[in-house]
Model the fold of this input.
Amino acid sequence: MTTIEEVRAREVLDSRGNPTVEADVVTRGGHLGRAAVPSGASTGLHEVRELRDADPGRFLGKGVGRAVENIRSVIGPDVKGLSVLDQDRVDRRMIDLDGTESKEKLGANAILAVSLACARAAAQSRGCSLFRSLGGAEARRMPVPLMNILNGGVHGHRNVDFQEFMVVPVSAASFSRALQMGAEVFHHLGRVLEQEGLPTTVGDEGGFAPNMESNAEAVKLVLKAIEWAGYRPGEDFYLALDVAASELYRDGHYVLRGLNYMSSEELIEMYANWLDLYPICSIEDGLAEDDWDGWARMSRELGHRVQLVGDDLFVTRPGRLQRGIDSGVANSILIKLNQIGTLTETLETIDLARENGYSWVVSHRSGETEDAFIADLSVATNAVQIKAGSACRSDRVAKYNQLLRIEEELGDRALYSSTELTHDGS
Done:
């Protein structure tokens, strides 16, 4: 009754109004799993490749008709008859069917849609929630939200260098309380911006995206919003940054507005100064994706003071994470399902991080859908943190709302702690 009977696929729209792939997996017993995949704007060079049609006469070349057809005519017939309870076998079959390192033949978006839909069908066949199906009885940790309330970089039309300025509610005793705190700061930031005469339009991930003079000004505005909301920076809230430094890297240097060209060493020194000035607990992609020497130096000098997250650096690939482990690079990894293309490989990467003392942050993409798979994934793997965007836009809020439902289901068994982030046990 759990064998795959039918696989369907279609084009749907993501949060930017661009097409993406949605797949249905239907079992012989009538269980249905459905999943839609996201798409990134700031993508790493080493990510697997989504398949786009490149037909300028349709969706400005961004259609995914070929990926959809690959599901219908190639992937579906090949996985038919496999059990949705054997996730590894389904995913390995698709990986072998594609046959490329980057999954570019069938499209990583096609493969991932089927992979995640299979997991949902498995949960339905087991008669349990997705997080429980994936993580078992030990899945009960609610993640700390790294809430992106001010957007920059390519997410904010390059209004400021750094891509994300996030607030991290560390004094909350539960996820629901943390979400409330973050939402309150988000709304107070809107009031701060209005007082400063700045626009309150939002970027791709729901955070405000005003034009600012500098990255430091953005930090100060967020700190002011925390205070206006009645909270204490450094006690109730810390800050997290996503620099997305690969977007700033040009010919061996980092090009920041107003600071011109900076070396890795100068950028690391700037981060060190910021750690002295501001309550920052996490820096993501502080250096470029292939600046391994710079990353090693940054990890030596700052790794004991702050979480250093590799996103473009690791792209959810076990091989690149293993290189980081062997080189003493970073201490945390961002987990994005569509960077690697299957659930099985994603879980393998998380296991590798766990075994080597790296934290993992389950993350959305800038082009999202209403699919809240990452909410269940974060709890299933007992992730310490989740990045799901701001407290704005239904494609972001859908993830937070699903976490609220999971917290309610867990009841007294739910765990919530931010001690790994504050470095002082608070």
About this structure: The CA atoms of residues 322 and 352 lie 8 Å apart. The two ends are 49 Å apart (CA to CA).
